[in-house]
Amino acid sequence: MQVIRNGSQKARQAPDSYFTGHVRFESSFKGTPPATISGLTVAFSPGARTHWHTHPLGQTIFVLSGKGWCQRDGGLVEDIGPGDIVHFEPGEKHWHGATDTTAMSHLAIAEALDGVTVDWLEPVSQVQYARVKP
Ligand code: MN
């Protein structure tokens, strides 16, 4: 058994190359091989979101606090909140983040395929994010 204490891991800024706005990675864990599971809590400030991306073996997010939005390519933007669980299928193009006015945090869990848990794509444009007609 291993207890990883709250606050024992230094929060770090998510890279601008894959996220829009202010995003922090907080607690994280990684399985012991041959397990390939890993996860982390991610805190999105209002307006912040991932870029479009896919996960080779899918991903599950558990919303912990706030109000968020997520969308799969070709689908509607969905409202998500605390207690909601969202599963993304392997290879399904999508994004997730806070709403434009409210922060959101989630726990994200995925398994790695050949060491890869995510493949990053283009940013979510302001038009896509805010659902504003151009
Ligand atoms: Mn994802």
Structural account:
This protein has 134 residues and is mainly beta. The protein has a single domain (20-131), classed as Jelly Rolls (Sandwich). The protein has one helix at 126-130; strands spanning 12-13, 19-20, 23-30, 37-44, 49-50, 53-54, 59-66, 68-72, 78-80, 85-88, 94-98, 104-111, 119-120. The strands form 4 sheets. It has a 6-stranded antiparallel sheet, with no helix packed on it. Strand 3 and strand 4 form a beta hairpin. The relative contact order is 0.25. The mean pLDDT is 96. Bound molecules: manganese (II) ion. Manganese (II) ion binds at residues 53, 55, 59, 88, 94, 96.
Q: Which structural class matches the secondary elements?
A: mainly beta
Largest sheet: 6 strands, antiparallel
Number of helices: 1
Strand content: 35-45%
Topology as H/E string?
Answer: EEEEEEEEEEEEEH
CATH class: Mainly Beta
- Give the integer mean of the pLDDT values: 96
Helix content: under 10%
Distance between the termini: 53 Å
Strand and helix layout:
Elements: E1 12-13, E2 19-20, E3 23-30, E4 37-44, E5 49-50, E6 53-54, E7 59-66, E8 68-72, E9 78-80, E10 85-88, E11 94-98, E12 104-111, E13 119-120, H1 126-130
Antiparallel strand pairs: 1-3, 2-5, 3-4, 4-12, 6-13, 7-10, 7-12, 8-9, 8-11
Bound molecules: manganese (II) ion.
Summarize the structure.
By secondary structure, the protein is mainly beta. The chain has one helix at 126-130; strands at residues 12-13, 19-20, 23-30, 37-44, 49-50, 53-54, 59-66, 68-72, 78-80, 85-88, 94-98, 104-111, 119-120.
Features:
134 residues, mainly beta, Jelly Rolls, six-stranded antiparallel beta sheet, 13 strands, globular, binds manganese (II) ion
